[in-house]
């Protein structure tokens, strides 16, 4: 795998985790997710790149 693509995926994962973790539990609930979903969602997002 290309190092640039790997870095892009890693950066997208980190940004998604950071943004979702900044939300409070009510906001996460409004989105239909829980704190335990954050890493999976970030991983799924990064893998779509």
Automatic annotation (TrEMBL):
Family annotation (InterPro entries): YjiS-like
Domain YjiS-like: 3-39
Any single Pfam family the record assigns to this protein: YjiS-like
The protein, known as: DUF1127 domain-containing protein
